[in-house]
Amino acid sequence: MAMLTSTILAIDNHILMPQNHIIEHLRAHQSIRKFTTQAVPQAQLEECIAAGQAASSSSFVQVTSVIQVNNPSARASLAQAAGGQAYVESAAVFLVFCADLHRNQKICELEQQVIPTGFVEQTLIGTVDTALFAQNVMLAAQSEGLGGVFIGGLRNQPTEVSKLLNLPEQVYPVFGMCLGYPDQDPGPKPRLPVACVLHQDQYQAIDADSLADYNQTLSDYYLQRTQGKSSLNFSQHIIKTVTKEARPHMLPYLQSQGLVTR
Ligand SMILES: Cc1cc2nc3c(=O)[nH]c(=O)nc-3n(C[C@H](O)[C@H](O)[C@H](O)COP(=O)(O)O)c2cc1C
User: Fold this and answer.
1) Quick one: 50 and 166 in the same domain?
2) Taking the mean position of all CA atoms in its chain, how far away is CA 2?
3) Cβ density class 160-171: b for 16+ within 10 Å, e for less
4) I need a surface site. Which of 1, 22, 114, 125 has the fewest CB within 10 A?
C-alpha cells in the first residue's frame, strides 16, 4: 500500500507539508498522445479495468462496457471517425467506453421483466458511471507507468462507431481511450485556481483578476510547451472551443439507440 503512505517533505531542513502520494499522482496527470511501441501486458490492462469497475456506480447498476479494439483496420476506421487522430491507431491499447443499458435489459428479460427505457436520466447515469469507471482506469494505468488520453472524438461519428463495434440499442460509445508507454512528457496543464471552482454557500461569478492571472499562467504554459508557437490563454481557448455548435447529431443518434426519448 505504498500509495497510501504520507511523508513529510523537507527542503533546507524546513518541514513544508505532508505529501499525500495519491494527490501527487492525481495532480501529475497529463494526457499522452505519443507512445513507444512497447506492448502492454493483457494482465496489467485487466488489472486497470478491475480498478475501473471499483468506481462508484449510481444505484449499483454497473452500466459500463469496455470494448478493447485490437484489429488494425478497425483501429484505422476509429482513428478516422475521431477526426483523424493517429494515436488511436498507434497506441498499444485502444478502449471504447460504452454506457451500456442493454445488459441490464437482458438481465431483466431473463427474469421475464420488461424495463422502461428512453429516459434522459438513464443516459445521464450511464454517462456518469462510465466516466467514473474510465477515470479510474486512466489513474490505475498511470500508476503502472502507462500514459493515455481520452478520445471524445469518437462522438464525431457515433453511428459509424456503433456499426463497427456492433453496438446494440441501449448502448452508446461515450469516449475512447488510448493507453501505452509514454514517448512524450508535456507536463501537467495548469488548471483554474481552486477559488474559481470551489464556491462557498452560493454560486459566485468568476473574479476578473483571478481569470487574468490564470490567463497569464496558461499562456506561459503553452509558450513553453510549443517552443513559442502558441501563447493561447484560457479565455481565447474557451472562445475557440465553445462558440461552435456541439455535435448536434448526438440527439438524433442517441434517440436512434433508443436513448433520450423522454
Ligand atoms: C471526455 C474527454 C474527451 C477527450 N477527447 C479528446 C480527443 O478526442 N482527443 C484528444 O487529443 N484529447 C481529448 N481529450 C483530452 C483533453 O484535451 C485534455 O484532457 C485537456 O486538454 C487537458 O489536458 P490534460 O489531460 O493533459 O491535463 C479528452 C478529454 C476528455 C475528458
Assistant:
1) yes
2) 25
3) ebbebbebeebb
4) 1
Please give the number of the atom of ligand 1 that sits closest to the Cα of 154: 8
Domain assignment present for residue 13? The answer is no
**Residue 173 Cβ contacting ligand 1 at under 6 Å:** no
In short, whether 222's Cβ falls inside 6 Å of ligand 1 is no
Q: Are residues 42 and 74 in the same domain?
A: yes
- pLDDT tens for residues 117-141? 999 999 999 999 999 999 999 999 9
Name the domain count of the chain: 2
Domain-located, residue 116: yes
State whether 114 and 176 are in the same domain.
yes
Q: What is the pLDDT of residues 210-250, one digit of tens each?
A: 999 999 999 999 999 999 999 999 999 999 999 989 999 99
Which residue has its alpha carbon closest to ligand 1 atom 30?
A: 150
Same domain for 86 and 167, yes or no, is: yes
Boundaries of domain holding 147: 30-186
The string over 104-137, giving b where at least 16 C-beta atoms fall within 10 Å of a residue's C-beta and e elsewhere, is bbeeeeeeeeeeebbeeebbebbbbbbbbbbbbb
Summarize pLDDT for 83-120 with one digit per residue, the tens.
999 999 999 999 999 999 999 999 999 999 999 999 99
The atom of ligand 1 lying closest to the CA of 83 is 8
Residue nearest to atom 28 of ligand 1 (CA): 150
Do 68 and 179 belong together in one domain?
Answer: yes
Residue 189 CA: nearest ligand 1 atom is: 27
